[in-house]
Amino acid sequence: MRVTLAQVDVDRHEPVADRRRRVADLVRGRGGDDLVVLPELWTTGAFASPAWREHAEPVPDGPTSAALAEAARAAGVWLHGGSVPELGTDGALYNTTLLFSPSAADPAPLRTYRKIHRFGFDRGEAALMSAGTEVVTVDLPRARLGVATCYDLRFPELFRLLTAAGAQLVAVCAGWPASRAEHWRVLARARAIENQVYVLACGSAGSHYGVRQTGHSMVVDPWGEVVAEAGEGEELLTVEIDLERVAEVRRTFPVLRDRVLGLPTPE
């Protein structure tokens, strides 16, 4: 399975419409990939809270959904579209991930995920955005993909639930600050080791309202080994992953069957 993590540079001086077109063009160029993953809140920036409501859009009828759905069809790829600030029908804002199939029969996102754990404590995202409640997996042709966003990475119980739901790989889109770069590396590896899944951790590059981004998107295998890692700048990280590795690790080191706190064994 060939996966590309698109570590997009989110510059506040680049108009949102221009970046939307640029990223859609990037996706169109990924023909031959099985899955492409984009970062968190790449239209505005993960720390660009003053711009969230201005650029919030309805899902699935917003301009980003339309652009990404067309790009996924053109490239023939499954697309994890990162996340966008969603304007819900209730008037609330959500940090919402969009997931697209390559099929022309699916002009809207196949699934969406509203970020459950909002960062900022009593400020920023935690104060301005509402929380999602649904744990989301998506069936790709050869694997089940779990979905998480940035701050979710610090909450292992979400990843346990994704594993119990049959996830063999988990995509984590993020806008992770450089000041906590080592946490990014450690937590991505920990979630892979604990759950014996591939973790596809896609961050952004550049600086969001003065908050420098970590970059260093990475693919971590079910044994916790970093298969590939990007640098700090804008970059496409393309990796061939062996999905049989998940079953192999779980068979030879069957730690998941020894859980005793009520979660079922993965499918």
List keywords for this structure.
267 residues, alpha/beta, Nitrilase/N-carbamoyl-D-aminoacid amidohydrolase, six-stranded mixed beta sheet, 14 strands, globular, hydrolase activity, UPF0012_CS, hydrolase, C-N_Hydrolase_sf, C-N_Hydrolase
Provide structural commentary.
InterPro entries: C-N_Hydrolase (IPR003010), C-N_Hydrolase_sf (IPR036526), UPF0012_CS (IPR001110). Residues 1-243 form the CN hydrolase domain. Keywords: Hydrolase. GO terms for molecular function: hydrolase activity. The chain is of the alpha/beta class. The protein has one domain (2-258): Nitrilase/N-carbamoyl-D-aminoacid amidohydrolase, CATH 3.60.110.10. Helix content is 27%, strand content 25%. It contains seven helices and 14 strands. It has helices spanning 16-28, 49-55, 63-75, 124-128, 156-164, 181-195, 244-252, and strands spanning 2-7, 35-37, 78-87, 93-100, 111-114, 137-139, 144-149, 169-173, 198-202, 207-208, 211-212, 218-220, 226-229, 235-240. The longest helix is centred in the C-terminal third of the chain and has 15 residues, at 181-195. The mean pLDDT is 95.
Write the layout of secondary structure elements.
Elements (H helix, E strand, L loop, with lengths): L1 E6 L8 H13 L6 E3 L11 H7 L7 H13 L2 E10 L5 E8 L10 E4 L9 H5 L8 E3 L4 E6 L6 H9 L4 E5 L7 H15 L2 E5 L4 E2 L2 E2 L5 E3 L5 E4 L5 E6 L3 H9 L15
Parallel strand pairs: 1-2, 2-3, 7-8, 8-9
Antiparallel strand pairs: 1-14, 3-4, 4-5, 6-7, 9-12, 10-11, 12-13
